[in-house]
Fold this sequence. Notes:
- The chain has 7 helices and no strands.
- By secondary structure, it is mostly helical.
- The chain has a single domain (about 10-165), classed as Arp2/3 complex 21 kDa subunit ARPC3 (Orthogonal Bundle).
Amino acid sequence: MIWMDASKKNYFKFTLGLALCLLVRLIPFRAPNIEPILAATMPFSKAYGALTGFSFAILSILLYDVLTGTLGMQTFFTAGAYGIIGWWSASYFKKREASVLNYVRFAIIGTLFFDVLTGLTVGPLLFQQSFMNALVGQIPFTALHLTGNIIFALVLSPVIYNFIIKKKKTSTAPVINVLRPKIIQVL
Length: 187
């Protein structure tokens, strides 16, 4: 992962994030689009930059579709849309702090972008669905998607960011050497 800044590089945390997103998506009978991809993409793009945010989002979609045997043209639409969101997230958070409010704001904007881009194109273009059916069917789907992403942005994004940026405690030398204290005489 050459795209991660060498001073901040942590392949284990990146891989763990991907694995956890994949495991959540593999939960059977889960409501559609209640998944932590966006909630994890935001802190990764904030901590590691645009290319990592882009890669995290795309790999989250690709790994799931490959593992479940659902790889198809829709995969490239959804992976591409999430990749754009991962890249955009880095730009958004470059100028903003990693706060709950900023995570929620971006989750709303990103979810609406994703659902408009994928929900109103994949059905009509790939499955000959009428635009009106795609639009009407997208409304409850987007409401559920927004609810899930807002909750995950409130709860998971700050935790993930703190986990990503956590640094090892550095040991510091004591101010006074206990074995050889210096005596200062006041005259």
